[in-house]
């Protein structure tokens, strides 16, 4: 499951704006997106990931993704940094 990947990652970037920025900088190994996040937001991330040729994994819950990132709120997207 992708939650474990996020937990085991050495460095992650949390949030949509930060994820898109990291993708443009070329520092991302993989992107994890919550399926219950707003589609208008996640579409931008998926498009940026396609342009950067970075794989996108989907998980079911923003709340669980935020917990895996050790934050108190839900996370729509997380970038796992190289």
UniProtKB/TrEMBL annotation:
Coiled coil (UniProt feature): none
Cellular component GO terms held in the UniProt record: ribosome
Ribosomal protein eL8/eL30/eS12/Gadd45 domain boundaries: 5-81
Cross-referenced Pfam families: Ribosomal_L7Ae
Which key words tag this protein in UniProt? Answer: Ribonucleoprotein, Ribosomal protein, RNA-binding
Record's InterPro entries? Ribosomal_eL30-like_sf, Ribosomal_eL8/eL30/eS12/Gad45, RNA_bf_YbxF-like
Q: Name one GO molecular function term.
A: RNA binding
Tell me which HAMAP family the record gives: Ribosomal_eL8_Bact
What family is this protein classified in? Answer: Belongs to the eukaryotic ribosomal protein eL8 family.
Q: What is this protein called?
A: RNA-binding protein GGR02_002736
Specify the taxonomic lineage.
Bacteria, Bacillati, Bacillota, Bacilli, Bacillales
């Amino acid at each position: 499951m992708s939650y474990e990947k996020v937990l085991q990652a050495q460095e992650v970037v949390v949030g949509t704006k930060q994820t898109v920025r990291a993708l443009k900088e070329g520092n991302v190994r993989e992107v994890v997106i919550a399926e219950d996040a707003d589609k208008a937001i996640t579409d931008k991330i998926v498009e940026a990931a396609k342009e950067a040729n970075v794989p996108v994994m989907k998980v079911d819950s923003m709340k669980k993704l935020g917990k895996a990132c050790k934050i108190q709120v839900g996370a729509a997207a997380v970038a796992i940094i190289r």
